[in-house]
Design a protein that fits this description.
This protein has 403 residues and is mainly alpha-helical. The protein has a single domain, classed as Growth Hormone, Chain: A, CATH 1.20.1250. It has 18 helices and no strands. Helix 2 runs antiparallel to helix 5 and helix 11 packs antiparallel against helix 18 (373-402). The radius of gyration is 20 Å and the shape is globular. Residues 214-403 form the Major facilitator superfamily (MFS) profile domain. This is Putative MFS family arabinose efflux permease.
Length: 403
């Protein structure tokens, strides 16, 4: 088992890396659709750059897992950051040259970096057991608080840096953030048993692991939590601008949303230890449904911002809870394939949701986007609550036997 000192050190390193790596997506999400409207010949393709980012995350998860298994997490993360820096330069060039396809290529490549950043949460749990895993995952996600401020403020500070190429400065700053992550990631130290090239049995076959009901529920909960968040968040900036609000107001809305995504991480791990992972995940899904209800109440700026805040908190509870459930369902030697498969499903669905958001917003409006939240939440909420009740019964039975 990893020593506590090394675990704390790696958690701090990963939280710092998270603060830099997670600052890129708010830039892409806040401006991707707006730049898409500016460059795209077809209005229905405006959100394609944001959708391609999500597709890049999905496409990168399996290769990232294989690379990290072969060469170690630190080497993989350094490669991811290098890709992130290059992707920002490509997106910037796309804006400067008014080339929609090149801009889309840049956001797609940024997704590959995102696939590495998304696995920071799993890396924090390496070698830990029990409640320590949940707390480590939550601690790393705290880095997203800084990312919320950094990413959204960079949109505001740099969007007019090049008057002849609006928003090019923001995507150039995305490249700079990835470069800054490189020296941070160099400080990551792997436990001896996780050294690259070590011979491992590989554990059970993936198909056998996937027959576990709790893992199935965890994956579905993660898919629904993240896909709904991405679905609504992709459409929100365009909906706000379409309702007459400024780009700055839309960016601040995303900033509050991202702050809400990560601020609860200070206590999410403790809540899971006290109330159980299933219950915390269920509360997250209920908050996501509440965000849809608020959005349907009106089109004032307050409706957008409150809805996005609730959406962020709901994502935190739902996604971190589901992540912690996944880590309970595999052994250390099985983690690469299970975590990679989980993220492939999560971000593949996120990409599909993101692709559909722009088309639905253009064709049917902001209202339909939010109505679709409720049936998706209902699908997974009931099984989560039943699972929580079943685990409570099992724990009571174990306590009675012990007495």
């Amino acid at each position: 088992m990893v020593g506590e000192a090394l675990a704390r050190r790696n958690t701090i390193v990963l939280a710092l890396a998270q603060s830099l790596g997670a600052a890129g997506p708010p830039i892409i999400i806040s401006l991707g659709g707006i730049v898409g409207q500016m460059l795209s010949p077809d209005p229905t393709l405006a959100t394609l750059p944001v959708s391609l980012y999500s597709l890049g995350v999905a496409a990168g998860t399996i290769p990232a897992a294989l690379i990290m298994r072969r060469f170690g997490r630190r080497s993989g993360y350094l490669l991811g950051a290098a890709i992130g820096a290059f992707s920002g330069l490509v997106a910037t060039f796309g804006i400067v040259s008014s080339a929609f396809a090149i801009f889309c290529l840049g956001t797609f490549m940024a997704g590959f970096y995102g696939s590495y950043v998304q696995s920071y949460r799993f890396a924090a749990a390496d070698g830990l057991t029990g409640a320590l895993k949940s707390r480590a995952i939550s601690s790393v996600m705290i880095g997203g608080l800084a990312a919320a401020v950094i990413g959204s403020q960079l949109v505001i500070w740099t969007r007019d840096a090049f008057p002849q190429a609006p928003f090019a400065g923001s995507f150039l700053s995305q490249a700079a953030l990835a470069l800054l992550a490189l020296p941070v990631l160099m400080q990551l130290r792997a436990p001896p048993e996780n050294a690259p090239g070590e011979r491992q049995s590989g554990g059970r076959p993936l198909l056998q692991i996937l027959r576990m009901p709790r893992l199935i529920l965890a994956i579905i909960a993660g898919v629904v939590s993240y896909a709904l968040m991405s679905f609504v968040m992709t459409a929100a900036p365009m909906a706000m601008v379409g309702c007459g609000f400024t780009v700055g107001e839309a960016a601040l809305g995303i900033q509050w949303h991202v702050l809400a995504m990560f601020a609860p991480s200070f206590f999410t791990g403790s809540l899971m230890a006290r109330f159980g992972k299933e219950r915390v995940t269920a509360v997250g899904l209920l908050l996501i449904a509440a965000s849809g209800a608020v959005a349907l109440m009106g089109l004032e700026l307050a409706h957008f911002w409150i809805s996005l805040i609730l959406l962020g908190v709901g994502w935190n509870f739902g996604f971190i809870g589901a992540t912690a459930m996944v880590t309970d369902c595999h052994t250390p030697e099985e983690r690469g394939k299970v975590q990679g498969f989980n993220d492939f499903l999560v971000f593949g669905t996120v990409a599909a949701a993101s692709f559909s958001a722009g088309t639905l917003l253009t064709a049917s409006g902001w209202e339909l986007i939010n109505w679709l939240i409720f049936p998706a939440v209902a699908v997974v909420l009931v099984p989560l609550l039943l699972s929580a009740a079943r685990r409570d019964a099992e724990n009571r039975g174990a306590e009675n036997r012990g007495a």
